[in-house]
From TrEMBL:
Residues 41-361 form the Tryptophan synthase beta chain-like PALP domain. It comes from Cohaesibacter celericrescens. Its cofactor is pyridoxal 5'-phosphate. InterPro entries: DiNH2opropionate_NH3_lyase, TrpB-like_PALP, TrpB-like_PALP_sf. Keywords: Lyase, Pyridoxal phosphate. It holds the Pfam family PALP. It comes from the Bacteria. This is Diaminopropionate ammonia-lyase. The keyword Lyase applies. The keyword Lyase applies. GO terms for molecular function: diaminopropionate ammonia-lyase activity; pyridoxal phosphate binding.
């Protein structure tokens, strides 16, 4: 049995099954499909069947949406950051030229975009996706990182031509620095979170993430509906996008939705228990680096305030246990490369399924059909090898 235990768990007192007014554009998923599916190298990410783990946990199915190779960036993030870069640039060109839906590949567009700068704050993967998008569309990029971001992650961002600026403090401090600098310099900021002062770009980021579940719904079209969804929370972008897309598809029969966070930076746990956004202060660093966030995104709040049913928190000790399990066991046909943040949702499922009280409250059993996202692969190859004992290529037998 996999040894992962819960730190805290709670039911969301505000949970509801009535679809709220979503903070996304009605045609948004169509725009995402048209844009992202047109990029070179696009293909739906695999939906893997973790049948051995499902048997071990005595649940029906575990569907594992594997984002570990998406566009060569090894995470789901290009669906958000790079897509948002395209939308920000398109809106700018439309305002300058009066042409709706301008062709970003035209010579005129490329010439104008070369003088523009996009910026973002990141703990790794979002900044890499924004830098990738900036290079794709030919504009300058400056990425702010918090001091805890590894050199490997900084190098991966810089590889796409971005300038890296290090900010003392947390991810939330880097977010504020990116926003203030963008205002001073006249840059376009592409945040994956929102305090309410910027709406369009973080909404674009979040809406781009919906493509993951859109793909999964197509991959599962001949299967019974998903009953449970375990989602790593962070600021809430990926979680709200995933919850919203399932809600749109299933209506009031949406899956039971569980948010998973590191215990020391459980901003969604604290906020949903309090009934309003609450900032978590102090040391919020975590081995699950992509979830080391102290403040929820206000773009995500309207979705998850009623769309999340439970919140669970984990100790960082879950990281090596789950990463090694997937590298050794994986699916029926191959091992799975999953990074420190990538394993979080699955680790939350394992912990909940082994807690008798919580298992009963969540209705986990042999009929359960559970959806989980592997949100990243070896985005920091050195850290991955140090934890697993093998490189990603060695794990998958290359």
């Amino acid at each position: 049995m996999i040894d992962i235990s819960l730190e805290r768990a709670a039911r969301n007192p505000m949970a509801d099954r009535v679809l709220p007014a979503l903070p996304f554009k009605k045609d948004g998923i169509d725009v995402v499909r048209k844009t992202v599916c047109g990029w070179a190298g696009y293909e739906p990410s695999p939906l893997r069947d973790l049948s051995d783990l499902a048997s071990e946990l005595n649940v029906g199915k575990i569907y594992f949406k594997d984002e570990s190779t998406r566009f060569g960036l090894n995470s789901f993030k290009p669906l958000g950051g790079a897509f948002a870069v395209s939308r920000v640039l398109a809106r700018y060109l439309a305002s300058e030229t009066g042409v709706d839906n301008p062709d970003l590949s035209s010579g005129m567009a490329r010439e104008r975009m070369a003088s523009l700068t996009v910026t973002a704050a990141t703990d790794g993967n979002h900044g890499r996706s924004v830098a990738w998008g900036a290079r794709k569309y030919g504009c300058r990029c400056v990425i702010f990182v918090c001091a805890s971001v590894s050199q490997q992650r900084k190098n991966a961002i810089a590889a796409y031509g971005a300038e890296i600026r290090v900010v003392d403090g947390s991810f939330d401090d880097a977010v504020r620095k990116a926003a203030s600098t963008a205002l001073e310099e006249g840059w376009f900021v592409i945040p994956d979170t929102s305090d309410g002062s910027i709406i369009d770009a973080p909404r674009d980021v979040t809406q781009g993430y919906m493509l993951m579940v859109d793909e999964a719904l197509e991959q599962l079209k001949d299967e019974p509906p998903v009953s449970h969804v375990f989602l790593q929370a962070g600021v809430g972008g990926m979680a709200s996008a995933s919850a919203a897309r399932f809600w749109q598809a299933y209506g009031e029969k949406r899956p039971l939705t569980i948010l998973v966070e590191p215990n020391q930076c459980a901003c969604w746990y604290e906020s949903l228990v309090a009934g309003e956004p609450v900032a978590v202060t102090g040391d919020v660093d975590s081995a699950m680096a992509g979830l080391a966030c102290g403040e929820v995104s206000l773009i995500a709040w309207p979705v998850l305030a009623t769309g999340a049913d439970f919140m669970v928190t984990l100790n960082d000790n879950a990281v090596p246990v789950m990463m090694r399990y997937l590298a050794e066991q994986g699916t029926d046909d191959r091992p799975v490369v999953a990074g420190e943040t990538g394993i979080s949702g699955l680790a939350g499922l394992v912990a909940a399924a082994q807690d008798n009280s919580l298992r009963k409250q969540m209705g986990l059993g042999p009929e359960s059909r559970i959806f989980v996202i592997n949100s990243e692969g070896d985005t920091d190859p050195e850290a991955y090898k140090a934890i697993v004992g093998k490189s990603a290529n060695e794990v998958i037998g290359r």
